Amino acid sequence: MKAIVVVDQNWAIGKGNSLLAHLPGDLKYFKEKTLGKVVAMGRQTLESFPGGKPLPERTNIVLTTNEDYPAACEICCSKDQLFQCLADYDPEDVFIIGGEQVYREFLP
Predict the structure, then answer these.
(1) Digit-coded pLDDT (tens) for 39-57
(2) With contact defined as beta carbons under 8 Å apart, do 4 and 34 qualify?
(3) What pLDDT is attached to residue 22?
(4) DSSP line for 27-59
């Protein structure tokens, strides 16, 4: 399992549920690395995508406390449940993509 994130010089990753900057090279790299893979994220990260829709051509797994969250992706309501979901995938194919709370949960 890997984390993929862009940070600024102060280790900030975003503001107002948006990226700090939209850098074409970084977005291209993110797409190349995650296409066909599993991306795990928090609810707010999903909602920050255009239309709040999952990323295409990837398995999207969302960590949220709302068991009834209406999303076209796999929903996990706890860190333990997320680990159970991720156990079905090759760890080399799993990317943690945010947000802050999710990164903190997965840091050693």
Answers:
(1) 999 999 999 998 889 999 9
(2) yes
(3) 72
(4) HHHHHHHHTTSEEEEEHHHHHHSGGGPPPTTSE
Look at the domain 38-108 and name its fold. Dihydrofolate Reductase, subunit A (3.40.430)
Amino acid at 11: W
For residues 71-108, b (16+ Cβ closer than 10 Å) or e, as one string? bebbbbeeeeebeebbeeeeeebbbbbbbeebbeeeee
- Mapped onto helix, strand or coil, the DSSP state of residue 15 is coil
Separation between Cα atoms, residue 46 and residue 93, nearest integer Å: 19
Give the start-to-end residue ranges of the domains of the chain.
Answer: 38-108
Q: Is the peptide bond before 99 cis (omega within 30 degrees of 0)?
A: yes
Residues 35, 58: contact at Cβ < 8 Å?
yes
